[in-house]
Structures are given as structure tokens and as C-alpha cells.
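Task: sequence in, structure out. Protein: Ribbon-helix-helix CopG family protein.
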Amino acid sequence: MTTKTPFSVYLDPEVMEALAAYADRRGKSRSLVAEAAIASFLSPDADEQREAAIAKRLDRLDRRQTRLERDVGIGVEMIALFVRFWLSNTPPPPEAERAVLRRQGGDRYDAFIEALGRRLAKGPKVKQEIGEDFAPQEE
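Result:
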């Protein structure tokens, strides 16, 4: 049987309460929990595990960022293509009709925003209709 060396430490009341609560929840002695915590803190494996966890999170964030950049790029291209198409194929209205069309445009815009809200609320999103493996082609 191995003998353990006694060791006394002074803990802040909050730390002691947390230690006691953790030990009670686990059904372990405070001494055993404190020993495991100290061993984990001093273990070089703990640093490697922490580093691996951080690297994994950073990798996940990088993939999300890449997807966001892709999605924003698709949105910008889509809007630019639509505007170019619209301006190329729609003649300007006669001067006499412009005031009426502006008023109607406001109403149509409000209807568009409502339809957009409904689409966003229930889906499917255009983003889901475009394949995740979409790769832009060089022109």
C-alpha cells in the first residue's frame, strides 16, 4: 500500500464550497478531488488536451467563417446579377407615371418584406437549395 503525504492548503471560502459541492455530488472525498485537480493541473497532458481542444474549436470557427464568406459572396453575386438583369431589361417609366409608380413601389416593397419574413420563418432557404460543395468557376 502506498502512503500519501499530508498537505495543508488555505482556500478561499468560495473555492472550498465549490470543492465540497463537487465532492458531495460525486460521492468522493474532498482530498481525492483536490488531489485529482492538482494532478490534472500539473500534468503535461492537460496542456496538450487544452491545446487540442482550442485547435479543434479554431478549426470549427475557420470552417464556419469559410461558409459565411461563401454565402455572402453568393448573395452579393445574386443581387448584382438581378440588378444588372433588371436594369438591362426594364425601360424607365414615362415622367408622368413616376409619382404613381413611387407610391406603388412603396406598397410593393412592404409586401416584399412581409413575404421575405414569412420565407425566413418557415424556409427552405435559398442557401439550402445551393449545394454545399458549390465551387465557383474561374472565368
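The chain has a mean pLDDT of 87.
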